[in-house]
Write a structure and sequence with these properties.
It is built from 6 helices and 8 strands. The chain is α+β, with helices and mostly antiparallel strands. The chain has one domain: Gcn5-related N-acetyltransferase (GNAT) (Aminopeptidase), CATH 3.40.630.30. A hairpin with a 3-residue loop joins strand 3 and strand 4.
């Protein structure tokens, strides 16, 4: 099942997407905004990762498409805890020129709708490196997530340690957001 937003279609990742994902992973400009390690990745490693993660019901990985631009990014719902009804989520838009056009907002809203209204999750959470102001604005300001804490100097990038902002949104907060701003009206 594809997830449909106002601007985006989120679909399952396919083998044909691996080259684009590999370019993103190996792009220093893109990777500086993502926590965790950054090693050069080969197509063989990317394919092995894809094969390992293709049939995993605790991790959902999707490609972000728009009608005009085709594939523009990647979104995930990972570490799904079916007992406690929680998961982690992240978005990566590949092209800098496509950022600030509402694609990220629509992606996060579509992910939240799917998680809370279809999967019956109770909480989504994530982490953002503190200097990634665009992502903080996306999640906190535009999509209603709440800052839950800070992991101080826990991310090492560009020869320095940076804070990691921990954030989350509850199902009830999502429903309040929808009721307040009517995001899905006129569908």
């Amino acid at each position: 099942m594809n997830l449909i937003g106002k601007k985006v279609i989120l679909r399952a990742m396919e083998e044909k997407d691996l080259e684009m994902l590999l370019e993103s992973i190996n792009d220093p400009e893109t990777e500086k905004y993502v926590g965790g390690y950054s090693f050069p990745t080969s197509m063989k490693q990317q394919k092995e990762w894809f094969d390992k993660n293709s049939n995993d019901n605790h991790n959902i990985r999707m490609m972000i498409e728009t009608k005009n631009d085709g594939v523009v990014g990647f979104a995930n719902i990972i570490n799904i805890d079916w007992k406690n009804r929680t998961a982690s989520h992240g978005v990566k838009i590949f092209n800098n020129e496509l950022r600030s056009k509402g694609i990220g907002t629509d992606t996060v809203m579509a992910i939240m709708r799917y998680c809370f209204e279809e999967l019956n999750l109770n909480k989504l959470e994530g982490a953002i490196i503190a200097y990634n102001k665009a992502s903080i604005n996306l999640y906190i300001t535009k999509c209603g997530w709440k800052v839950e804490g800070t992991r101080r100097k826990s991310i090492f990038k560009n020869n320095a340690y940076h804070d990691d902002i921990i954030m989350g949104i509850l199902k009830e907060e999502y429903h309040q957001l929808i009721e307040h701003n009517k995001y899905w009206e006129n569908e």
